Amino acid sequence: MSPAYAAPFGRPNPQALGIPELREWPDRADTDRMRRGPYHLSRLATVLTVSLSLLTPMAANMAGAAAGTSSSVPVGATGSTIVSSARPRGFHAPATGRRPNPAIVARRAARVARYTSLLVGVPRTLPALARPRMGAPRVGVVPGGSKYYGIPIVAWVEEVSLDGRWGHVELPYTWPRREGWIRIATLQRRTTRIRVEVDLSEHLVTVTKLGRVLVRAPGATGSPSSPTPVGEYFVTDRVPFAAGSALGSFAFGISGIQPRLPAGWAGGNQLAIHGTNDPSSIGRSVSAGCIRVSEATLARLKPLLAYGTPVIIHA
Fold it and tell me: How far is CA 231 from CA 42, 47, 53, 217, in A?
């Protein structure tokens, strides 16, 4: 905020404000001069009244601006003492506007906490344990690279231990689905407020940021013989393809696998959100388990779905 009055702290200059200068009589002033008539006393009283009416608000502003600075008042002093700031900053207009409602602030903080996800970079294959402590039973591993492309894994941490050293994650590419604790104390961390939700019953793909919808589009899901498995996953691959391919122009590989592949399927078992060369299939249950979306939807997803972005698939 720019100062409302840029004069430094200290005594204001009356002449700068257009106030007549008040001169003190020299020590040798005789009693005759001090015994001037009522007319002279009236003029002096008028000048003093105007001066005090202008200077008093400025003195109050100076006292308010200097609040919080160190000052000392002599013991027994009966008058007010104004101490200027050690670092003059000029006069400032008082703060305006209503104070924020604590309940609204608390609700906003809770929403941010609810929809902010912790992500960690996995530099190598890490053991996953049943509990967040050394010596606990091992339940699996979190690989350092994605299943088919070897892209370094960025894992979604769904819970952090009280000491902050361990993170609870869904183990990638496992069936049945398993979860475990990995040491995250020395891993690189970042957060995301983006989340993907796939509703299988509605054939809808929804992307949100802090719970607010950014993208909502139809998608194809697994057929009755090869249904898309529900679960909590995260993005592990971002792979471009030639336009017109069976996967469309882009695919987001995720950390899940399809345990019920169609007979004769030879295309791998990793789940993905990708495009298609059969737009008529979108909105139906016809895939081998992956989520198909249109090219227009792919274009909207590309700038949003980074590595590690949570993907929640539910019935």
Answer: 91, 84, 74, 20
* Cα dihedral 180→181→187→189 (10° resolution): 80
Handedness of CA 301, 306, 310, 313 (dihedral sign): positive
pLDDT in tens, 200-232: 999 999 999 999 999 999 999 999 999 999 999
The gap between the terminal CA atoms of the chain, to the nearest Å, is: 53
Give me the domains of the chain, ranges plus CATH numbers: 1-97 (no CATH), 101-315 (2.40.440.10)
Task: Give the pLDDT band of residue 7 (cuts 50, 70, 90).
Answer: very low
CA nearest neighbour of 301 among 309, 232, 258: 309
- Give 208-214 contacts, CB < 8 A, sequence gap 24+: 208/115, 209/115, 210/111, 210/112, 210/115, 210/116, 211/111, 211/114, 211/115, 214/304
Tokens representing residue 211 in the block:
């719970």
Please tell me the pTM assigned to this model: 0.69
Distance (Å, whole) CA 183 – CA 165:
6
**What is the three-state SS of the chain?**
CCCCECCCCCCCCHHHHCCCCCCCCCCCCCHHHHCCCHHHHHHHHHHHHHHHHHHHHHHHHHHHHCCCCCCCCCCCCCCCCCCCCCCCCCECCCCCCCCCCHHHHHHHHHHHHHHCEEEEEECCCEEEECCCCCCCCEEEEECCECCCCCCEEEEEECEECCCCCEEEEECCCCCCCCEEEEECCCCCEEEECEEEEEECCCCEEEEEECCEEEEEEECEEECCCCCCCCEEEEEEEEEECCCCCCCCCEEEEEEEECCCCCCCCCCCCEEEEECCCCHHHCCCEEECCCEECCHHHHHHHCCCCCCCCEEEEEC
pLDDT in tens, 24-54: 444 444 444 444 444 444 555 554 554 555 4
